[in-house]
Amino acid sequence: MISQGAVVNGKSFKSTAKTIALAVGLSASAGTFALAADMPVKAPPPAAAPAPFFFVNDTSVSFTYFFNATDPGVRGSAGTIQGGIPGTQSTIGRISGSVDHFDVWEYGSNIFHIEMNQYGKNDPTNGIVGAAGSTEVVGFGHSTISWNALTHSKMFTNPVFTDLGWSFGGFAAGENDQLAPDDRQIDLGLAINFNLPGVVILNVWAQKEWNHNSFQSCNGQGGAMFACAAGTPAGAVFSGDRDWGWVPKLDLFVSEPLKFITAIPVTFISITDVTFPKGTGISTANVAATVGPGAPILPFNGNFAQNLANAETKTEIFQDAQLRFDTGKVTMGKPGIWDTYVGYRYWYNKFGTDHSAPLFSALGAQGSSIEKTVYLGTTYHFK
Fold this sequence. Notes:
CATH topology: Outer membrane phospholipase (ompla), Chain C
Number of strands: 13
CATH superfamily: Nucleoside-specific channel-forming protein, Tsx-like
Distance between the termini: 21 Å
Shape: globular
Mean pLDDT: 82
């Protein structure tokens, strides 16, 4: 059983799906073997080799290009918000390179992912127009512990699901654009492995998130986007740090081999995440402080109601679907070595931003709260 959750935040799981299907298949077929009582034995059988600690162990590297990525709050078609290029659209080309490790052991499974994203010049480093595109680094790990394995039984197998388990992990990301986000997340919950063809796993998590983001921050010093409102108490100065409470999150992973396609092995993979609203992560005083005095630097820095709407989060939906081709089997006769894939990603209220708030609908960053993009990529497995 393995979690595929996301991300949040550029969170890509493309290179692990084939090994997940293999892991579940191996888990289902594991058992004991015995000789028939009347089989003649001429010599004692050789001693069995000790079973490896990890009976599935896969490490891979992937490269992906997203044609129309977005970065919420960076800039929009109006081009008036810092960090963008005037007159440009709300989409950015993004190149992603990642390393993934997936393993299965006696009591569960683990996945570790490290990813680097290079954005185009429409999302420049430190928000400096004309600078090279910003760079984002993402890392996460998730593990599951099987209840059947813990109890050495099939107690948690029935017509609805094949196993249940504890699911837990964490996520971290940072980017050097104008907003300088620095995100941390913890996921704790239950994994349900459904008794369906292929691999269908639902994770039901409680998620806790902390984030630093200079969006709406104010202190009149470096690292903040503008000065605080006149008369703001020192204790209400908002640095950009946000601390959200625990919220529900659902993560559904599906991997289904398309066996009716015989010319080349193809697997359909789908990842769907739903993260419920997290609030603002800041106090009312912080929101009031960001209504700066005089001529504001940013167009949305106009009044309390606008800033509160921009800060409020909404339900976030991440949906990623891809077709993965076993290119290594077709070109080299080596299955499971080299994959290529094409996919489509739809990310609604990205990072929990409200696409209907003034900033994302009418002011400087129109359209940046929703990502709709085709992508292409390739994965090599080290075996």
